[in-house]
Design goal:
By secondary structure, the protein is of the alpha/beta class. It has helices at 37-40, 49-61, 73-85, 99-116, 137-142, 146-149, 167-170, 177-195, 222-233, 285-292, 308-321, 326-345, 381-391, 421-441; strands at residues 16-20, 23-26, 31-34, 90-96, 124-128, 160-162, 200-205, 236-240, 264-267, 279-284, 351-357, 360-365, 394-395, 397-400, 409-413. The strands form three sheets. Strands 4-10-9-8-7-5-6 form a seven-stranded mixed β-sheet, sandwiched between helices. It has a four-stranded mixed β-sheet with strand order 1-2-3-13. A four-stranded antiparallel β-sheet has the order 11-12-15-14. Helix 2 (49-61) runs antiparallel to helix 11 and helix 8 (177-195) packs parallel to helix 9. It is globular. It starts with 15 loop residues before the first strand and ends with a helix.
Length: 445
Amino acid sequence: MSHIFPRHTAMQLPRAVKGDGCYIIDQNGKRYLDASGGAAVSCLGHSNEAVRDAIKAQVDRIAFAHTGFFTSEPAEELADLLASKAPENLDRVYLVSGGSEATEAAIKLARQYHVEKGDVRRSRIIARLQSYHGNTLGSLAAGGNMWRREPFEPLLVDMSHIDPCYAYRHKRDDESIEDYGMRAANALEEEILRVGPETVAAFIAEPVVGATMGAVPPVPGYLRRIREICDTYGVLLILDEVMCGMGRTGYLFACEADKVTPDILCMAKGLGAGYQPIGAMMCSSEIYSAIENGSGFFQHGHTYVGHPTAAAAALAVFKQLSAAETMPAVNIASQKLFAALRARFGDHPHIGDIRGRGLFIGLELVWNRETKEPFVPALKLNARVKKHAFANGLVCYPMGGTIDGKHGDHILLAPPFIIEDQQIEEIMDRLDVALKVSLEEAGMP
């Protein structure tokens, strides 16, 4: 009997005992192709020697020193390197232990920034429906995925949520993609005016929406209009790149694709590539100066922030991610994966959309391709696909509630950046089988 408290009490999980590139091996020797990098985490695969060596070397020097007393060499070097590569004016780095901590820190920093400036009425955060920003109470309140929020609703701070930028579902037939982008972005201005500009602290969004919608990128011009609106009303722009950042979309920072710089940027997952738990929040020099010239104290913190061993791992990861050859390699692999998916599933009667950026790709499953009608939630099609893919040695990331938190199914793919042509074919074959078996179970031809 296990004494582990699992994510789901009915699941009997195999034990992972070894990593080998894009594969995870269980206690029985079965190999699983990790086509989602866990949850878009394992960007360098599961056996990167440089990262493992960096961790061992740091443990031999010093594993931990509390940031209330010390800084450390790997933390300082990681911050320097991140600041040198980040979009303009993001030059301060606050290291944490994961994505939820990063967004929680961002929300609190946004509030404190306004307080330090004497703008004490600015406390409201605006986010988007179907977003996911983490599982702490603050980040969950910002998130707009209804089924995740529902059990904890009485505990959550009141925040506003506008519609996402979701052209497949929300663009009208009589408008261009650019016009739709402006309409979607202008919903932010409408909400700011509704609640009162003087009350709004920040707007938070994922540049490419990950887990809850399945790799939905913004349409051209959307994020730039969002930036304009935030600037007009003195609202901070927080971009959550926890899942889509660190090269996942083919850009080191996901916002680079849209030529937009946030005031605060959150990252995690790919920053540690799964080798250590780590995340980071970056902010502009203006925000840092408000704290520095005010109280001087960011009223926040956790025991393991700035952990030296985690920072050493992230430094080894980020050196590889920021190497000149890495993003071109990601984009070449992306082109091959997209081409293979479209060749195999482009005409599939129950796949309505294949979308994403870089090695961050979603397939939206539909009951009727012409009308875009989703499957009935009771069928739990996403869970069936996950189960059958896993049984066939494929780790992918299907989720339900794509459209509104209840209806809709998608499959998220986010393989390691080291994926090769043979493994792309393995994904096609194993996913094809999983879809066929799952649809047959659900009573579909």
